[in-house]
Amino acid sequence: PSADDLAEEMEDVDFEDEGAEEPDAEAWESEDDEGVEDGMEAQDDSEVTFSLHSASVFCVSLDPKTNSLAVTGGEDDKAFVWRVSDGELLFECSGHKDSVTCAGFSHDSVFVATGDMSGLIKVWRVDAKEEVWSFEVGDLEWMEWHPQAHVLLAGTADGNTWMWKIPSGDCKTFQGPACPATCGRILPDGKRAVVGYEDGTMRIWDLKQGTSLHVLKGQDGHQDPLTCVASNQDGSLIMTGSVDCHAKLVNSATGKVVCVFKMESVTPKAPISDGEDAESNSVESLGFCNVMPLAAVGYLDGTLAIYDLSTQSLRHKCQHESGIVQLLWEESSAVVYTCSLDGAVRLWDARSGKMISEYRGHSAEILDFTVNKDASIVVTTSGDHQAKVFCVQRPDR
């Protein structure tokens, strides 16, 4: 038997050596390591890199219950559920035929949903690693789980918002204007949802009745497509952002606009024919602080604006070299996180407007990111085909 063992060992060695004789294959394999040898390791602040995607990674979510699992979806038509601690794959959410642009866990981490651009949505039971439901809608714009129930909402390019009970599949639709439902958010009470549309309108829907409670359009609405919506912790205030560079603060009970935040420095809009103007700007992301009356708005021109809600005025402008893709507030402090087209994650103190820290590691733009509950890690996805986990524990805790 020892001779057999030896023979097996020899085979292994041969095999490995063979690989080494093909420098090209080897170079491709260890591209990442080579960068490290060239003294680039200083640039990668991440703890874990997940690299099973073979194209841009568009979306990431953490499981709400333990924050130990991530789901990522990408341009390679794939979605993966993996462990944040070591990047170990738990299972692949297979069967998508188009870029996976939406992915997220249910409120109790029992289910994970993945949605692709063509509108195929699949739901998997996490512990069993098996698909329990799927449905096909029109081209998918956004998708979100209900904060307290196994209910999934999605907005599509035909203007509809869909709501399903999972896994039974009982379904309701909310018909918007005949243009894409570009963004949406379920309000914290779980009874209403706010949906923004490409024609600049916004609707607040009653999820139970299926009726529209408030519609903002014309002067009250936006002049251009909505890009993002957010609500404060108790759902009393909604903020909408748009390609028109305005962010509107809306009272969710009355549907009335409380105030409009405009960027003073915005260049006047070019005529439509020059739609591709390099000067274009838009609101890309926004959110409310939980611990102070502050809101943050991130713009494509790289401006992070911190607004004071009590005085409805601009408190700080934090400038980025390149466009902001997304921003998130820490759950229990006045710290706001941004990710941008330059591939960095930055933490800002909203009280002082100063940058606290910066994390790098991606070789392309960051396309999505999320922060865990205790704000100790950030998980990012990028055009460099990778997802990364950064530890952001700060000394002042």
UniProtKB/TrEMBL annotation:
Principal subcellular localisation of the protein: cytoplasm
WD repeats: 50-92, 93-134, 188-215, 317-358
Disordered as annotated region, ranges: 1-46
One Pfam family recorded for the sequence: WD40
UniProt keyword annotations, A-Z: Cytoplasm, Repeat, WD repeat
Keyword Repeat in annotation: yes
Anaphase-promoting complex subunit 4-like WD40 domain segment(s): 288-366
InterPro entries: Apc4-like_WD40_dom, Quinoprotein_ADH-like_sf, WD40/YVTN_repeat-like_dom_sf, WD40_repeat_CS, WD40_rpt, WD_repeat_multifunction
Keyword Cytoplasm listed: yes
SUPFAM superfamilies on file: Quinoprotein alcohol dehydrogenase-like
GO cellular component, one term: cytosol
Summary of the function given for this chain in its UniProt record: Plays a role in angiogenesis and cell migration. In smooth muscle cell migration, may act through the RhoA pathway.
Protein name, UniProt field: Angio-associated migratory cell protein
